[in-house]
Amino acid sequence: MQRVDPPRRTGASSNFELAAWLFMRWSGALLLVLILIHLFVNLVLGDGIQGIDFAFVAGKWANPFWQWFDLIMLWLAMLHGTNGLRVIINDYAGTASARLWLKSILVTCSAVIVMLGSLVIFTFDPCPATTGTESLPQFCAER
User: What span, in angstroms and rounded, lies between the C-alpha atoms of 61 and 119?
Assistant: First the structure.
């Protein structure tokens, strides 16, 4: 049998795929730690699933630490997932045109989700005036 060598790339060499591969490993490990902390704080230290309501989220997001924690988790999860789907598109899309369109849609959707999520985290009002006081965190009554 005759051995066929894979075609060689022409043009400039790039380390993008290596960086993307390393990002997947490091972001996956970091996401695992962040998610376990998130679950521990929300479910074990709190009142379990029954304790998670508007007041619980409002109380957490009143603290900048938890806003940044959730923002980092959102950004890492979206970048990790987008990179994974990019690899799947590269593997399974049949034509260069299909790859271009699918990756364009993927990046657009991911950017919109990251922007909206970031906006919600930093513009969230823990004490809206139109909500009854029973569902608000206790610090809202002091205002």
Answer: 13
- Residues in Cβ contact with 126 at an 8 Å cutoff, skipping those fewer than 6 apart: 58, 59, 61, 62, 136, 137, 139, 140
- Nearest-CA neighbor of 80 among 36, 18, 20, 14? 20
What would the pLDDT profile of 78-119 be if each residue is shown by its tens digit? 999 999 999 999 999 989 999 999 999 999 999 999 999 999
CA distances from 88 to 31, 79, 92, 106, 107 (A): 20, 14, 6, 11, 14
Contact 23, 83 (CB under 8 A): yes
Cα–Cα dist 81/64, whole Å:
25
Find the angle CA(123)-CA(114)-CA(104) to the nearest 5 degrees: 145
State the residue for tokens 């399974």. Answer: 92
Regarding pTM above 0.85, the answer is: no
By the 8 A CB rule, do 45 and 51 touch? no
User: Nearest CA to 37 among 71, 70, 79, 78?
Assistant: 70
Tokens representing 121? 């985290």
